[in-house]
Design goal:
It is a single chain. This protein is an alpha/beta fold. The chain has one domain: Vaccinia Virus protein VP39 (Rossmann fold), CATH 3.40.50. It contains six helices and seven strands; from the N terminus they run αβαβαβαβαβαββ. The chain has helices spanning 5-18, 34-45, 57-70, 85-96, 110-120, 143-148, and strands at 22-26, 49-54, 78-82, 99-104, 124-133, 153-159, 167-172. Helix 2 links the parallel strand 1 (22-26) and strand 2. The chain is globular. The protein starts with a helix and ends with a strand. The mean pLDDT is 97.
Length: 174
């Protein structure tokens, strides 16, 4: 879903503070929410790259068009991908080697969110930041207990109503 003000603020401040090099996003949508705030923070850091993926061709094309037309200065910090994350990101991760920051905000499907997390897990090292949107919905029903009961992850921040539909910030400890 759409990011609320507090969610955008937390996302932006997290990127500015942590200065990640290799960032990944599931769910570009139109590129005006998390994609924009991550790429703007990376630009202000003058460091890092966001790889963002969208499975809907129309949304993908609109995002690419809008950034090319209206936000060309951010194109050094964001790379748009179209297709299934498993197919597309396999080669990107092979090249990048690690994930410093990951945001999961795909379809409202708990199994899919768990599959996305599992796909990226081998590339996440101590210090990796994981943010998950729609934390209080069915989208995270399978992932939530894993993160909440993990010795590997430390949940550092949870945004809840009325400031958020649920947004979590977790840090990989080991």
């Amino acid at each position: 879903g759409q990011l609320w003000y507090a969610e955008r603020k937390l996302l932006y401040e997290t990127i500015r503070r942590s200065r990640p090099a290799h960032c990944f996003e599931i769910g570009t949508w139109r590129g005006g929410g998390s994609t924009l705030f991550i790429s703007r923070a990376l630009s202000e850091n003058a460091f890092g790259k966001l790889h963002t993926i969208e499975i809907d061709r129309e949304f993908y094309e609109n995002a690419v068009h809008d950034y090319t037309s209206y936000l060309p200065s951010l194109l050094n910090y964001v790379e748009f991908h179209f297709g299934d994350f498993r197919t597309v990101y396999s080669s990107v991760l092979e090249k990048e080697g690690t994930v410093d920051f990951l945001i999961l905000d795909g379809a409202e499907d708990g199994q899919q969110t768990l599959e996305q997390y599992s796909f990226f897990l081998p590339y996440m090292k101590p210090g990796t930041i994981l943010m998950v949107h729609d934390w209080l919905t069915a989208k995270t029903e399978l992932l939530k207990p894993i993160l909440e009961n993990s010795d590997v992850w430390e949940i550092q921040r949870v945004l809840t109503p009325p400031d958020s539909v649920g947004f979590v910030l977790a840090l990989r400890k080991q």
